Structures are given as C-alpha cells and as structure tokens.
C-alpha cells in the first residue's frame, strides 16, 4: 500500500467518525480535516486542507497550540479541556487529545488531534458552580436556599427501615464518611440530608453532585475548582470541596465517577487538601463526604466500576436502605402520608383508601420504590374529581408488574399465560437476589440454576 492509498483510507475513516479529526504533517500542513471538525470550528474544509495550520489558525496563541507542541516537541496532550474562540469570535469548548506520530527513528512525521465538542456541557458546569456558590451565605449563615430534609420526612414503621434510620441518626453525631446503598427511589438523598441537618455541621453548606451527570474533564473541575491559566480558557473558580467547607458534600452515584478520578478523590480524602485543576497550591479542606450508589457495592467492585480502596475509605459508616417491596407493611402509612400531601397541593379531598385499592398497591413490586408509590398517589389525587375515597379506578398501575406473588388475588388482566409466567419469574429472581445481597452465585444456588443461566436471565430481564 502506497502513501496515497493509505491517506485515502484515513480520509474515508475520518469522514464517518463523529468526533473532530485534524492531522498535520511534519511541515505543518493540514492533510486531514474531517467534516465534524469543520462543523465544530465553523471552518470550510477546503480553507484548511493543504494549508499551513499555523497560518489558518493564527488566532490561537502558539504557546497554546497542542498541535504545535506535538510537532515541535513530540509532546502528547491527553483529554485536555480547551476553551477558545473560533474564526467568528464564538467561544467553543472541547476535550482534545493530540498525539505526535513517530517513524522508526522516533522522528515526528505528523500530529493527530481528536476533538469533542463540550461547549454546551461546559456552560452547564459553569452554571452549576455559579448556582452552588449562590446558595452559600457570604456572611452570617441564615437559612440555606436548598430544601432541607430531616428524619421526620422519612415515613415508615417497618423494622428494617427503623434499624436503617437508627444507624443514620447515630451517623449524624459523628464526622465519619458515610456510604449509602439503596435502589432508585428509596430516599438516599433524604437520608443524606437528614444526617447533615441533624449534625453539628447543619449551619454549613450541604452540596450534592451527581457523578454520572458530567464527563471526567468537567467533573474534576467542578469538584476541585480551576486555576486561571491552568489550561486554555480556565478561570479562578472554587470547586465544590471549597464551597462546602465546614459542611457536607454528597457524591451521588459515585460509581459513575471515572476510575482515574476516583483515585484522585481517594488522595484528597487521605490528605485532607485539594489542588485546583491547573494549579500548584495545596488548599486544606474540612468537608464530610456522603457517597451513594444504587447497585450493591460488591457487584460494582467486581465489575470494575468502584475502586475497592475508595470504597473502604468511604465505608466507615454503612447504610443500606430496604426497597419498598421488602417493607410493604409501610404502604398504608405511606399512602396516608402522600394523600395528605397531595390533597393540599391539588386542593382535593381524597381522605380514605378502599380495600381494593390498598390490595392493588400492596400487590405491586415497585421497581421505582417509594418515589414510584408517591407518583401513583399524586396521579390519583390529581385525577380525582369530587371523590373522597381512593379507589382502584383512580390508580394507574402497570398491569404487567402487579403480580401479587403469594396473594390470593392476581392482577393479570390483559396478560397471556406466558407473560404471567415471565413476570412471576422476574419477581422470584428479584426477591432471591435481594435476599442474597445481590450475590449472583448465591442466588443461582438458591434458585437451582447455573450462574451463567442466572446471568443470562438478569441481562434478558434487565434486572
């Protein structure tokens, strides 16, 4: 294959890739510049290809050009956030990786740059930091602007729930890190806020960040802050660790945090200081960490989503919230509570629940837990006219999940026998997995299945 044929293949591949690709030869001329990159930088490809890239992109200071560094010094740049102006003066933000290409004699013969547009995400992250900063009092603390939850907002008399709340209440009397496991909708943030607002830190900030919401390059800046000049477009801005000084930082879905960033977080927790992105100054911190996950920590560590050393560092106090299907004795209490809450909201007067409606609610398995139950009640109350009794007709529950396993009545209206058997199997698998703490091997033994067979069913049913 000659050079022209190889270049043709590269051009074709670059044309079907969504990320921007810019390849510059050793003499500084652009030889590949795909449409994704042209769209990102608002350029015409014919204005770039075959021309000296430093002439075309003269508006970028040469010391800030990662392509120039790659060509001149053989210096790679990996996953670097850059903010710069395109030729029309519009600010754009990208995550760039620039790699020098070397021949057999280790001489630079080209440089390849891959760019991903994160302009909108960068604006969102800046907005998050600004809004978080606005919630922190500048002088004497009065009333936080975020909604506060306390233990009285956690409703239920179930024995397992009471044990969980007892541990959480004791946790509020210490400064130790807390690790909370609970399925979606079980109330992890309610417990986290209750711990904070029942602690000695209650007059200090409570800040929360969902680790799954942003890419690594932006999440690191949000957590640790940025230093002006640390990278192109960077400004001096404190991160959440600095903003939460003296208070509590909730890291929701911490297992979604990139593995490399987890190691940086571990170092911060061990040393009690942070260093802003692009900075060289160590800043001491005093922040309590509460971390949450919605899958069992054992499975997350086994699958490589959660670092073991980080888990053991955070898991000083462990809190496991029971799902609603394991505390169905609390459903009548929760229904009354949500009726009162949403009657006031919608100016309705649905004060009682029929036996049929209650039985229907108790027969459901609640993949969305307490949040899902509240949604059912909120929907029923909002649809009520002059009714004073919550009846089955007002409840809009998915029939396919109202199994009533072990009950005398089954809600299998509009179900075929195959659908009913499938739903029954799902319910049994979920119940067994919960009993075995999410351990697939133990659950497979209890069900009399091979581990591979159970794994197939978990994937098939998206459990």
Description:
With 463 residues, this protein is α/β, with parallel strands linked by helices. The chain has four domains: 3-116, Beta-Lactamase (2-Layer Sandwich), CATH 3.30.450.20; 121-320, Rossmann fold (3-Layer(aba) Sandwich); 324-401, Helicase, Ruva Protein, domain 3; 417-460, Arc Repressor Mutant, subunit A (Orthogonal Bundle), CATH 1.10.10. The chain has 18 helices and 14 strands. The chain has helices at residues 3-15, 35-41, 53-56, 66-73, 119-134, 159-171, 188-197, 216-224, 240-243, 259-271, 297-302, 308-314, 331-346, 355-362, 369-383, 417-435, 440-447, 451-460; strands at 20-25, 30-33, 77-85, 91-102, 108-117, 178-181, 206-210, 248-252, 273-275, 282-284, 288-293, 317-320, 352-353, 389-390. Strands 2-1-5-4-3 form a five-stranded antiparallel beta sheet. The longest helix has 19 residues, at 417-435.
What secondary-structure arrangement, pairings included, does this model have?
Layout: H1 3-15, E1 20-25, E2 30-33, H2 35-41, H3 53-56, H4 66-73, E3 77-85, E4 91-102, E5 108-117, H5 119-134, H6 159-171, E6 178-181, H7 188-197, E7 206-210, H8 216-224, H9 240-243, E8 248-252, H10 259-271, E9 273-275, E10 282-284, E11 288-293, H11 297-302, H12 308-314, E12 317-320, H13 331-346, E13 352-353, H14 355-362, H15 369-383, E14 389-390, H16 417-435, H17 440-447, H18 451-460
Parallel strand pairs: 6-11, 6-12, 7-8, 8-11, 13-14
Antiparallel strand pairs: 1-2, 1-5, 3-4, 4-5, 9-10
Helix pairs in contact: 6-7, 13-15, 16-17, 17-18
């Amino acid at each position: 294959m000659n050079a022209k044929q190889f270049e043709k293949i590269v051009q074709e591949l670059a044309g079907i890739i969504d990320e921007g690709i810019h390849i510059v030869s050793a003499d500084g001329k652009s030889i590949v510049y795909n449409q994704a990159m042209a769209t990102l930088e608002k350029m015409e490809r014919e204005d770039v290809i075959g021309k000296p890239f430093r002439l075309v992109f003269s508006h970028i200071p040469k010391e800030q050009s990662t392509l120039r560094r790659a060509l001149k010094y053989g210096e790679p740049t990996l996953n670097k956030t850059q903010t710069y102006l395109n030729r029309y003066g519009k600010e754009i933000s990208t995550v760039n990786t620039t790699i020098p290409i070397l021949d057999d004699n280790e001489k630079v013969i080209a440089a390849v740059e891959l760019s991903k547009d994160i302009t909108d995400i960068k604006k969102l992250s800046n907005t998050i930091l600004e809004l978080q900063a606005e919630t922190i009092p500048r002088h004497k603390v009065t009333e936080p602007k975020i909604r506060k939850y306390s233990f009285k907002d956690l409703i239920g008399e179930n024995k397992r729930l009471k044990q969980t709340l007892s541990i959480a209440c004791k946790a509020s009397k210490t400064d130790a890190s807390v690790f909370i496991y609970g399925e979606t909708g079980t109330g992890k943030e309610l417990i986290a806020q209750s711990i904070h607002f029942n602690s000695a830190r209650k007059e200090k900030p409570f800040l929360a960040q969902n680790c799954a919401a942003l890419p690594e390059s932006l999440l690191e800046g949000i957590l640790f802050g940025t230093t002006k000049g640390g990278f192109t477009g960077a400004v001096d801005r404190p991160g959440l660790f600095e903003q939460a000084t003296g208070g509590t930082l909730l890291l929701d879905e911490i297992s979604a945090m990139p593995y490399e960033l987890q190691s940086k977080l571990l170092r911060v927790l061990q040393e009690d200081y942070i260093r802003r992105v692009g900075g060289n100054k160590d800043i001491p911190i005093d922040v309590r960490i509460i971390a949450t996950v919605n899958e069992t920590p054992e499975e997350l560590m086994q699958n490589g989503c959660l670092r073991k050393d980080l888990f053991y560092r955070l898991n000083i106090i462990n809190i496991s919230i029971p799902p609603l299907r394991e505390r169905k004795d609390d459903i009548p209490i929760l229904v009354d509570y949500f009726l009162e809450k949403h009657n006031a909201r919608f100016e309705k007067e649905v004060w009682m629940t029929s036996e049929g409606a209650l039985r229907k609610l108790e027969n459901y398995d609640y993949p969305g837990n307490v949040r899902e139950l509240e949604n059912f009640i909120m929907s029923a109350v909002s649809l009520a006219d002059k009714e004073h009794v919550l009846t089955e007709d007002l409840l809009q529950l998915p029939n396919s999940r109202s199994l009533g396993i072990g009950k005398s009545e089954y809600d299998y209206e509009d179900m075929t026998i195959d659908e009913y058997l499938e739903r029954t199997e799902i319910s049994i698998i979920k119940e067994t997995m919960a009993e075995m703490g999410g351990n697939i091997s133990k659950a497979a033994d209890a069900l009399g299945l091979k581990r591979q067979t159970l794994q197939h069913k978990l994937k098939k049913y998206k459990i």
